[in-house]
Amino acid sequence: MSVYAHSLPVPETLQTNSRNPTPETLENGLLRTFKSPFELKQIHAQIIKTNTPPSVLQLSHVASICALTSSFPYARTIIHLSGKHETAVWNSCLKDFAQSESPDDAVRLFSRLCEHGICLDAFTFSFVLKACTKLLDGLGGRVIHGFIEKLGFQSNLYLQNSLVHLYVVSGEIDSVRQLFDKMPDRDVVSWNIMIKHLVKMGNVDEAYNLFSMMPERNVRSWTSMIMGFVQCGKPKEAVDLFTKMEEEKLCPNEVTVVAVLSACADLGALDLGKKIHEFANRSGFKRNIRVCNTLLDMYIKCGCLVAAYSVFEEMEQKTIVSWSAMIQGLAINGKGEEALILFSKMIHLQIKPNGVTFIGLLYACSHMGLVHKGRQYFASMSRDYGIVPQIEHYGCMVDLLSRAGLLKEAHEFIKSMHIKPNGVVWGALLGGCRVHKNVELAEEAIKHLLELDPLNDGYYVVLSNIYAEAKRWEDAARVRKLMREKGVKKTPGSSSISLDGVVHEFVAGDDSHPQTEVIQQTWEKLLEEMRLRGYVPNTSVVLLDIEESEKVRFLYRHSEKLAVVFGLINTANGTPIRVMKNLRVCEDCHAALKLISEIVDRKIVVRDRNRFHCFENGVCSCKDFW
DNA sequence: GTAGGGTTAG
């Protein structure tokens, strides 16, 4: 079906889009293929001379030209002469524009088609909607929607789905619901779009409800749902769903692999990650850059730098994402120097860094105490690469200065910021105040933090620690009281370790594990040896208002200690122990794990909230700087 | 010739 759009006035929204061509559009857009302004005439001459009509492709070149020049009627003449179906030619052109770097050219061409009363069909709309989707142009979408209704295409399922999707990506929530609810027919695509919508709204439970109710599910449905869980911070659910998908004998594709690998990265689930890696190799997914980048990230987040590096090395093509991930990976694994060297190598290869690359670099500097170098990178990002520092970069800089003990300077830096500092920025200062014992500035930081992020328990805990270390017990008690009043509870420390694919979780103070007794006995034995090597429990990390002996008892049941001891008991001598922790490792556990690695002669890798600690022969890869 | 997932930071 096709309809002439003669009678339709071109709405203003679309007219504003139909700006005149600029050198940039000509350079960036599809019109790079536009060789000379004489092309039109050449094609015209060809038709007349040889009597061979040009192909649709050639003609869509003509159309490309006309979209931006005044020779629209002339182009129509040529298309008519060619004997090709005019709508097909324009559609081909719209499709190219929609796929190009400047999809707004498609919108502009569409306006011209309307102005000149060209016959439109469903394909015309689908292409222009694709362009609007790419542009996140919900308003333009509404206008096209109006056209679709007026011209009688409203029952076309392709167009319905395209419209719903456009409303999803452009955030027109009300329109999404309205349109979806009154759709006469829905297919698996419609449902998949709704999953994306609900996930985007953060409503992953409802998305899963919908997923369960769907009349039909394909690989994309499963993948969208798995990815939805990952995006909503539920990697465990993502992995569980993936297992169900395998049970249904559905074959994962590249996107599924990316989703599951992301979940593995979040969980630190190395075993499953390795399996997916093998599957990806078998399936020939290695050529897919996103698969490789996610794989690389998975190994990094699981603390397997060597495996990550070999994925990186083997990649046929690397993007800035690969480089940035590798730089950050080295940095969080205590290989800051290597991170900086890799960056130099990248620059040498003339690869342009982006904002994320600099986050990794600044992080590396911060964790090595390289203040000068960090300042240089910060200055260089805008000066040499035109990257405007974002709030994350400011956060890194405050962290760098604060860790190095330059607290006043860090504070000045915050005050001079051009954007409003957020919780991360003030939190970095607070962290530095703890290490360098500056109560006064800590109080300044907390003042802002209580405004910005009053429900974040971490800040209260740090402040209370700072007071406790300064022996200001009343103030420490006051902070705890404040927490109670605000209903803020300290997140319990929790560590997990995976053995033979089973994840064992330990929460601080937890003695519910079936092996609790053996864990206690082993710990006692280790403790004797640790004491001989100079270990003294550091009870300042315990915030509770309890007797000293109670504090020690508490300290000995910190989750990372429990998980590590459990690992020692249940694995063969020499096997590395890998533990994931939800919070940062405490000072006491850090000291204890260094000694334990020496006593039992094992590598112990702990991933905390921020980075990796690799304990080996009595030292930690973080060089006690974290 | 038309519609629906994906990578580094957080």
From TrEMBL:
Residue ranges constituting the DYW domain according to the UniProt record: 534-626
GO molecular function annotations of the record: RNA binding; zinc ion binding
GO terms for biological process, alphabetical: RNA modification
PPR repeats: 187-221, 222-252, 288-318, 319-353, 456-490
Superkingdom of origin: Eukaryota
Keywords associated with the record: Repeat
Pfam families, per the entry: DYW_deaminase, E_motif, PPR, PPR_1, PPR_2
Record field: transmembrane: none
Comp. bias intervals (Polar residues): 13-24
Region annotation Disordered: where it falls in the sequence: 1-24
Similarity comment: Belongs to the PPR family. PCMP-H subfamily.
Protein name in UniProt: DYW domain-containing protein
